[in-house]
Design goal:
The protein is mostly helical. About 65% of the residues lie in helices and about 0% in strands. It has one domain: 434 Repressor (Amino-terminal Domain) (Orthogonal Bundle).
Length: about 150
């Protein structure tokens, strides 16, 4: 079950509208809709705690391995990094579609692929020109520092 499916199911089970859940967690209705239907994830880990409290479940249940990976990609590299991580997961998942691997084996392979992703991002950082790096250590393609700037 995906993150969005979990949120939707728990929201409905608790008798909450998207507006009510948004108000309880401090986000917009559009954000809740994006989680449920667009495959989006919270950008910050703290939001999982608020969601878990509002939905009556654990944050660990909501996060899952893939959601945690995408949230960390967003925190480290912004929205572009999160999109790259999602594309990476999608292509990895496609490699094993219809195969004979057990879910446990797929999870193990997925963890190794995620580790490879982080290693590749760190190696790419080594070759980012200094003019595109900010003081906080993040790399930004437009040369601007800040949380909204895109990484290289």
């Amino acid at each position: 079950m995906t993150f969005g499916e979990k949120v939707r199911e728990l929201r409905i089970r608790n008798g909450l509208s998207q507006d009510e859940l948004a108000a309880m967690t401090g986000v917009t209705k559009r954000t809740v809709r994006n989680w449920e239907t667009e495959g989006k994830y919270p950008r910050h880990r703290e939001l999982y705690e608020k969601l878990a409290s509002a939905l009556g479940c654990s944050a660990a249940y909501l996060r899952g391995e893939q959601a945690l990976f995408l949230t960390e990609a967003s925190e480290r590299y912004g929205s572009r990094g999160q999109r790259q991580a999602q594309a990476f997961l999608d292509s990895t998942r496609a490699m094993f579609a219809g195969g004979d691997l057990s879910p446990e084996d797929i999870d193990m392979i997925g963890k190794h692929f995620m580790e490879m992703f982080w290693e590749a991002k760190e190696n790419a950082r080594k070759y980012t020109p200094v003019k595109y790096r900010s003081d906080d250590g993040a790399d930004h393609a437009d040369g601007k520092a800040g949380p909204g700037a895109g990484p290289v």
